[in-house]
Design brief:
By secondary structure, the protein is of the alpha+beta class. 47% of the residues lie in helices and 11% in strands. The protein has 14 helices and eight strands.
Length: 354
Amino acid sequence: MRWNRGRSVAELCTVLAEAIERHDEGAAQKAFQEIVAEVERADAGALTEALVALRPALAEVPLGNGAPLAALAGGLVEAGGDPAAALDVLAERVAVGLEQAARFPALAGTDLAAPTDAASARAVVERVAAAGGLDIDDASQLTQAWFTVNEWVPALLLPLQDKAGRAALPQRQRLIEAASVAPDEIADAHWLLGLLLVLDDEPLVVVHRESGAVFALTVSGVGDNFQLHTLLAHALVGGGHLPGTPPAADWVAAASDGPLQPSNPIRGQFNLVDAGGKWIWNEGRPVDIEPVAGRRIVVLDPAPYERSWNVGRVYPLMRPEVRLDAVLPPDQAAGWLRLVSPAKSPTGDRPDSL
């Protein structure tokens, strides 16, 4: 007897893409349901094949119709597919979409409701075309981007929380520029920008001003300076290299790979300052620390007031690394200490969470 073989995830993805292209909602819904059922049984190889099968559709589908395919690509990565199989296509579509969406407010404002039918969509497109002197096709692309690119962005948020995904990402600088100027209405652009600016395998010099101790560390996958603060305290105080009370285990877990919110607020032990004496606010990112002599330098000063925060990390799936490489001997430490200026008073409002 010959058994009938069910369709693979890759085959079902092709069926879904074709249904979306011809606007067949019934067929698309049926294919999607079959994909969900099949994904649970598929191995990493089959999931990667499915991502490869999605590539042509992801590249060619109009931005306004393709959000379900982008979401599916993200789901396949989450289930175990290799993000590199479609990362370049997703990067291109998101970059273009963000660039186009940034042009829309000047032509049509930001208060328009999303079109609900062909007539209302046509009205918005014609308004954009008239305001910008554009042809209908260009105006349509800007309009689609404005209303739908935010639904494409999450397909990048998942793979970029993985170090390998960040290393494989093409067009990083273009995406940084596009996400940096995205209007506030494109809410997920903020989270995308944060991942695009994450440092990996970044050498960091940490100076403890009171003792003169200097440490060489390597940092990867740290989303903000709240997280950096906790993990520095764990590596240096928890490691017995500096005096103080080590961070509680659930604080460290919240900043690493455990529940995001510990049972009690995380408390800061230091005031982070750069080599020039400027305060490093916890709300910032490690990338904001200006390099000196080819290294980002963090100076640990006594905390001037009590700081606390409730959440350990901003990206739940990103696994950080703050690795102590060396406690520098006095002769090497002296060279870095000479680059450190006295601390300055902060300017502006005090943003750290209390």
